[in-house]
Amino acid sequence: MNIALWVVQILLALFFLMAGVVKATRPKEQLATNMGWVEDFDGSQVKGIGVLEILGAFGLVLPGLFGILPILTPLAALGLALTMIGAAITHMRRNEYGYVVFNLIVMAFALFVAYCRFVLLPL
Question: How many CB atoms lie within 10 A of CB 39?
Answer without folding.
Answer: 12
